[in-house]
Amino acid sequence: MRDAVDFREYQEGDLDGVLALCRQEAWSSYVDDRDRAHAVFTAPGVVSVVATDAGRVVGFAYFQTDRAIQAHLSLLVVELSVRRAGIARRIISHAFPLLGVARVDLITDTAEEFYRSLYHKEESGFRLYPPGIAASDG
After folding, report:
1. Which residues of 87-96 are buried (b: 16+ CB within 10 A; e: fewer)?
2. Can you tell me whether residue 19 is helix, strand or coil?
3. Inter-residue contact 51 to 59 (CB < 8 Å)
């Protein structure tokens, strides 16, 4: 499978596959409104990348970027059946030239081991929410 996986920028035809990956992770903020999700993945300042195998979306990431200094990795997901095959690492590698930045920041509460395996500098971070709004599922 590893050599058969293609990496490219997200297109509208990828939406169902991307939403299936989000559903796999129970990320309802994307799944609940497909039009909003597509708008997010194609917004100005956003770079979205898919990994496909025989046309099927098996991985996805979207980044917010200033295209000069830094970007933020907002979402990265790989289909459960193909995890640990290097797809996430290759999505990030594919994205860097598209982002045009020197660094990517991110927040994770589930994949620390994976991100520590990449060339990085670990720092403390926070995710802020508007007053009175409970922390969401992403």
Report:
1. bbebbbebbe
2. helix
3. yes
- Kind plus residue range of the DSSP H or E element containing 91: helix 87-99
pLDDT tens, 6-63?
999 999 999 999 999 999 999 999 999 999 999 999 999 999 999 999 999 999 999 9
**Within 13 A of 122's CA, how many CA atoms are on the CB side?**
8
Helix/strand/coil for 5: strand
Q: Give, rounded to a whole angstrom, the gap between the first and last alpha carbons of the chain.
A: 29
DSSP 133: P
d(C-alpha 40, C-alpha 102), whole Å: 23
Find, among 69, 87, 65, the residue nearest to 77 by Cα.
87
Could you give the CA distance from residue 66 to residue 50 in angstroms, rounded to a whole number?
20
Handedness of CA 20, 22, 26, 30 (dihedral sign): negative
Q: Name all domains of the chain by residue range, CATH numbers in brackets.
A: 2-116 (3.40.630.30)
